[in-house]
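Supplementary notes for students who missed Thursday's class. We covered one full example, reproduced here. Read the sequence, then the structure, then the short commentary at the end.
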Amino acid sequence: MTRIGVDIVDVERIKRLHQQYGGRFLDRVFTQIEIDYALSARGNRRYERLAARFAAKEAVIKAIGHAVPLRSVRVENARSGEPIVTCEHASGKIEASLSHTDRLAIAYVLIEGE
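Structure (token representation):
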């Protein structure tokens, strides 16, 4: 069976959450690899990266069909820049496409063999 999930996130929302809760927000939602990758960017670009990863996590949860901890969904990058998404709660191969602008981030996820 193949499952699909999609999510769109307002970059400003992620920025506000980070400004309001700081590291507590980041540590609750993202893995250290995701945080390091996002914060290595300058300015608003860091929030675009966080928003894209948040959208990917939500899209995976939608594809799985039930809630799982956000940190159990991990988003890393291949050398080519392609996102590599894994989740210990998914029983299939995850394919993902992420995109963002300065205002919005979107993720589309396909889980094959779920």
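Commentary. The longest strand covers residues 2-10. The CA atoms of residues 13 and 51 lie 8 Å apart. If anything here is unclear, bring it to office hours.
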